Structures are given as C-alpha cells and as structure tokens.
From TrEMBL:
Pfam family for this entry, one: AAA_13
Any coiled-coil regions, as ranges: 133-167
Source organism per UniProt: Marivirga aurantiaca
InterPro entries, per the entry: CR006_AAA, P-loop_NTPase
Protein name as catalogued: AAA family ATPase
Record-linked SUPFAM superfamilies: P-loop containing nucleoside triphosphate hydrolases
Amino acid sequence: MIKNIEQIEKISCFDSFVWTDIPDFTKYNFLFGFNGSGKTSLSNIFNLITTKTNFSEDKKKELFQDLKNSDAGKIRVNTGNNQKLTYPSTDNQNNRNVFVFNSNFISDHVYDGTKGNFKKFNVSSTELNDPDIKKITDKIEAKEETIKELNKKTKKAEDELAQVKKDYNSDFRKNFANKTLSVDKTIPTVDQIPNDSIEQLKQKLTLKIKEHNLSKNQKSLEEDVQRFSQLKFSEIKILQVDINKVLQDSVSKIATDSLTQKISDFQEIVEEDDIRKVEPWYKFGNELFKKISQNQNKNCPLCDSNISESFNDLVKSFSAYFDKEYEVFIDKIDEQITLIEAQINTIKETNSNYEKLFKLYIKYTDFINHSPSEFSTGELETLLNEIKEELINKKSNSNKQQKLDFSELDDILKVHNQVMEELSAYVESLKENLLSRIKSPNTIESSIRNIYKSIVYKNLDTKLNGVEKYHSNCGLKKKTVKEIEVLQEEKVQRLKGLKIEAKKVGEFLKRLGINHFTIDLNEESEEDNILVKYKSQSQIKSRLRNTLSEGEKTALAFSYFLSKVTIETKNPSQTIIVIDDPISSLDDNRIYNTASIIYDTFCDYKQLFILSHNFFFLKYIFPLFRKEKSCYLISNGNIDSLPKSLQNFQTPYYYMIESISSFIDANDKNYDEARKFLPNYIRRVLETFFSFKYAKLTRARNGSQSPGLDDFIKDYIDFSSLPIMSVDSINNENIKDKLQMISNVCDNFSHGNMQQLENTNFITNQSLDSISKDCLSIIEFFDGIHFKMINELNNTEE
C-alpha cells in the first residue's frame, strides 16, 4: 500500500512539496482540486512508480522529462516498512502494480486526438468465461505444470553438474594452480559417458599427471632414453664343434706312425705328472735336431745313444711334427679360450646392464607395464669356466684327446638366450615408451583436462542414475512447449473470434448508459481500428474524431480502462487503481453511473485513488465507500487535508468564500499565489450567490449558458430598489460600480485553468485587497443572514 507521497521536487506545479502533518493514505482516497491544481501531474507521478508492464521505462523517461522543471526534479513515495519508491528509480526497485487512468492512458490506448486505436489486452494469464477458452487454458496450465516439474528435474541435474564441476575444479587447481577446469555447462549425451569406471579414469589421471610432471624435465628424460639405447643384452654362443675338435685333435697325428709309437712308448715310461715336462720337447724338438745335426757324433738327447745312422730318418719322420703345425694347433686352442672368455665377459656386461635397466625401471615404473625378466648366470658361468679350464689343460697336454658333453650347457643357453632376447625387446619397447613421453606439457595438460571431463561426466551419470533420463525429460519438455504453443495459437484464434476488447468495452459502455452505438475491433488494422456502429445507421465508421462526441470518447476510454484492468488483473488485492477525472463532458446520469461502476469494480482492490474537480461526481461516489476513506485537497502545488467546507462535496462555494476570507485576514499575504486563484474565486462566488439569490439558471441573451457576473449587473439586479444601507465601503449608491469594477478585473483573468493564470501578475496588490473585501461586503449587503451563517461555518472549522 502507498502510505504517502513523501516528496515532490521540481515537478510541474509542485515546486518543493514535503508530506508533513497530513494523515496517510488509506484504502480509498479522494483528492479534490480545481482545474490547474496539479491533479493530472499527481496522477502521472503514479505512472512513474508502476511496473514496466503497465508503463514502459521509455515512457517513464519521456514523461519525467516533460514533468520536471529542472535536473533536480525527483519524487519519493513511502510504501511502509521503511520502503521507498523513487524516480529516478534505484536499482532493483520493487515498483507496485498500479493502473492509472488519465489523459496519458487515453492517448496511449484509445484515442490520441486524431486516431482511435485499441491496444490489445494482455490475456495470456487470464481465465475467461468462454468455455472453449477455459478448456484451452486448463490444458495450457496442465502442461505448464508438467513443464514446472520437468524444470525441477532438469534443474536438479544441472545443479548436480555444477557441483561436480566445482568439486573437480578444486582438485584440478591442486595440480594446476591459477588455472580453471573448463567443462561444458550442458549435460553430456549418453555417448559422451566413458566406458571406464571412475577408478579406472582416476588411475589414468594419476598417470597423466605424473607424465605431465615428467614432461617438465625433458632433458633428464632424453638422457635416460639415451641410456636405454646403450643397454645391450647379447646372446651367448658356444662353438661346440670347434671346441670338441681341438680337444680331440693332437700334434701326434701329423707324425708318422713309428714316431708316434716311439713318442708314445717314451711317454708311457714317463709318469703322468711329468708329461708337462715332455710337452716342451714337442715344441722345441725341431730346433734340437738341427743343433744335433751340426755335431759329428749324433747322440740322442734322451738316451745318449748313437743315432748317427738313423738321424736322417728321425729328422725326416719328425719334420712335420716339429714344423709350424704345433704352433697353429696351440693358436686354435687359444682362440677357443678367447671366445669362451669373451662370452664370460658378455655375461658380466649383461649383469651390469641389467642392474642399470632395473634402476631405470624403478625410476619410470609408473609408465612401464611390467618389470624386466629375471635371470641367473651363475650356473652358466661355471660351465663356461670349466670349458675354459679344459682348453687350458689341452695346451699342456696337446696329445690328450677328449670330448665334452654339451647337453646341460645347451639347456642353460637356451633359457639364457631366450631371456636375452626378451630383455632386448623390453629395452626397445621401453625406449619407444619413454620417447612417446617426450611431449609438450600443454599437450599432456589437454589430455588431463579431457580425463577430468570424463570423470565429471561419469560421476554425474552415476549421480543421475543415467543421463538419458535428463535428456528424456528435456525432450518431453521441448515437446510439451510445442504443444503449449499450438494451444496458445488456438487460444489466440479463439480470442480473435471473441474480440474480447470490443466485447468487454461494450459491456461497460452499456453500464455507463451508452447503448445507442456499439463498437467492434478491426483485427486487420493498427490505426483507426475502433469500428463504431450507431443503431440508427447502417454504416460502420472508424474515425472517432468525426464520429463520437467528447463525452462519448470519455466514456469509451474509461470503459476500455475498466475492461483492461479487470481482464489483466489476476490478483486485485495486490493492485492499485488511480483515476483522474473520468467524467469529462458527461451528463449527470452518466456521472452517477460512472461512480457506481467504479465502486462495484474496484472496491476489493488493494488501494484506490480518485482525483477530480467535479463536485457532482465526488458527491455521488464518496458515500459509496463507507470505511477506510480519506479526503485531500490539491491546490497550488500542495497536498493537504480536505477542508470541512468541501467535505460534503455539495459545492465549492463555501470553500472559495473561506479562501477569500483567509486572504483578507492573512498577516503575511502571498499576492503572487493569490493572483492565481482569487479573481476566479471572487467571480464564481458572486455568480453562485446571485444565481441562488435571483434564481437564474441561464443568461437572458443565450438560454444555453449559465449567467455570468456581468449578466446580473446588466439584466437581473434592480439597483434602484435596493435598500438604503452600507456595509464597510459598500452602499446602495456605489454597489453597481463596485460590482462592475470586480467584473472588469475578474472576468478578464479568471476564466480557464490555473496554468493559464500563471502570468496574471498585473492585478495590483491594492486591487486584489480591494475586490476581496468588496466581494464579501456585497454578499453581506444583499443577504446579511447568509453572510452571518457563512462566518459561523468558517469559525466552526477553525
């Protein structure tokens, strides 16, 4: 409810108004003001605090620009509970649902002075009595309820997404400070939900984060890849045939059988432990025989027997044996020993490389699926060392023949070489794996974001028990919205058929007593869309300016206002109505009908404001509202309680006399303000007094007009028959001149409205004092009893 208008600053005739010592507004409020007092400006102030739906922001700006007198212009309205409505308005100001009927409403919605133009009602949320409309409306409301329920469900899902995003955004920022995880605001589709479980996705995420950390030190990674490249795991190869050959061969096979036998016989004599002592003879025998050949007596170096006769045969027989063959044979043995030693070293290198490989595996274990194959080389090394020992022994006893059994070694080598092959493949795989980790951190971060997104979607899918339900609801909502659109279009077409604007306005016109014409709405036109059909004529007319009288236009405009408000208002208890002079140019019967309709229509609304200058209208409507009503006077840019001299709404006559008397008695007269209303009051008071005194309703020279002051002076007052008396400065000798002077001064400057009198400043202060006093004295001169009773009335009010 609006309690009061707290302040009006520099708005129209309200220069600096502040609400003080005036009772607050009640449910029903009647504001009387003469023409030009500021009623329309006050009604427009209500337009500034209504909702945008009722009066657009652009119109408010335009209206305020026209109303304000300076940039300091402003209003402040008190709505109770320390709530204020202002214009210019504050942010998020909760304006009230106010409907205002005044000249602005008429020009905006009905008739702008040249063209008639009904604006369509806003009936989208209004239940109408038409059965078809009611049926359609019920269907729409049922589907709107469905949409509300669907909106709750979809909103809950969207809130869940927002919360999950928030949670994982916090987690994301732990790894990427000052960065935000960006995930679409829309609920994912079914095919966007990953197949992996949340745990699997989290494992991938953990690995990717480690990979991201790894990518920050690319140099170290590249160095380790290089180390991987240098690790070799060679297979062990043993030339079994070659080893057995050297072990089975001997130098003695090269000598002749006799030499072999002799040597063999000799060897049998020698102890086994002395074979190593004899073996050097194989190597140096040739040199020995050469030296013996130079001697004349050729004795055997072993037995000292004379071998002169057999020396040549011995030399010939031993020649092959004592040639280079022995050295070649020994070289072959050494070659096999070297090969065995190389394999033994390979094993040592393999063990060393495995240690390096395992350290790298530990370092990058997060990125490696399995550990390197384990193996043991102890048994293999033992077997190889045994073979080496046999070859070394062969060198000491070259004629000893033996054959090694390699079956155990074959089994061990097969396993070992298979492991070496696996390790070589493992190293290559690992190298490729680590090479693939040499990526830009930004690239890996992008992958991490995608995994987070997958986790968010998977988590949401779990919370929603399947996102397909959300999309199913969205599909149903979309379908329902389209069904509502179809129903609304059906409703629009039905409304067009009903032409609700014309129908409702016609009903109110009849209640106002206007039944000699009907109206219709031209749906195909935006200008002059009001069609008028008089009962006495067959022709339909659309130009209101040439068709309807001013009273009929007023009735039509007010009927439209009543129709619009009752159609568009769904909650009257929260709606405020402001009505500014709805009875312009109406006769007395229609004024009464208007008062009755206002009461019937708006008595249950939240608050009602009626502004008028018409006493007959206020006289009719005021008694209809029995409780919660207040009366106010708008005058000279001020709002005050209504004086008792006006509260019966019979006539402003007593109020005007009171105003004249107050001016006369004032110690500090405001002549500038008085010039705006006193000449008019003085003329109207005297005309009203003489009309009753002489019972004259019309002018003698024009029967259609009420008599003016000049008519009484010239036509109705018989000054010669007046009693001889005097009242103050008035007597029967000068009363006619006094009246003529008042007529001359007031008649020229008292017609029209107050706004036209703003610049009436050439009546002197002395003249204003004089005609004010003379006015009251003349009334006392003609009717002392009447004057006495008026004084008593004014004294009672005080």
